[in-house]
Amino acid sequence: MKQISTVLVLVAGMVADMQTIAAAEGFPVKVHHVWGDTIVPAAPKRIVSIGFNDQDFLYALGKAPVGVTEWWGDQPYATWPWAEPARRALGADPAVHKGDLNLEWVLTLKPDLIVATYSDIDAETYKSLSAIAPTIAYPADFPVWSAPWQEQLRLIDQAVSGDTSHAAAIIGELDEATAAIRLRYPQFSGKTATMADLREGQFTLWNNASAPTRFLTSLGFTFPAELDALSDQTGWIYLSFEQAALLDLDVVVWPNGKRDEIEAIPTFSRLRLSREGRSIWPDPADPTLSSALWFQTPLSIRYALDRFAPLLAGALDADPASITPAN
Q1: What's the predicted TM-score (pTM) here?
Q2: Which terminal CB of the chain, N or C, has fewer other CB atoms within 10 Å?
């Protein structure tokens, strides 16, 4: 009896130790997102990213996905230069999917976690993916495509690490870097700015809650309330050429270029924005910086901050000769 009791004590101790280790690792963990709660039972080892920029977040968190989805750009492993050092450091060589979501492709990679925080998967698709592996959709309480990058990062960190401590450290570092830019360029404070594009014969902007505008306001710029009031429920703002005066801000960034086409629009050419050279145009030979502005991930923001701030300062000084292409 004494021997059996000793064995039971030892087994109980081992169970307690295993429970302590599991608790320390944070698993199993329940992750809440737009389609409900997902239980991730253990630290994932085979992560498939179907969100368009989710791979950046995984690399930032030190996780190597086995499959990723390409947004655009035809980059090796769907990884842009700002994330390439992290990919190499992790030894990641993920399979790359292009085009519409393919459930068979996901299945062949045998994932134990599917990440879709920058994706518009609906409830039915989420159910299908969840039949393959635990799936994390985009953050709750935000329209699709509009959750702040910080919320994406916390959500993914919780799913892959069991808590959000890594996310907190990354957010803190980027907050410090952004604050340093504001101190270095106090002239940004209170000036109006936006990112814009020319699509289907209209000027297209993004509202105050969208990632491109949040990036600029984090540097001290403001976005006019009268423009924000024109946004639709998805955060898009469309201005006809006759409404060009609403675009006459202190700085406008055109990540997709089209400079010749835009400057040929009569209502645009009459703006102070045009006369004083307050637009920033990308370098068509190197789309890396403009792409970093679209991605809006911890790695792309860090890449863009120091490179982009001087361009903004040059646009603000109202000297067309001082504006160099973004690169």
Answers
A1: 0.88
A2: N
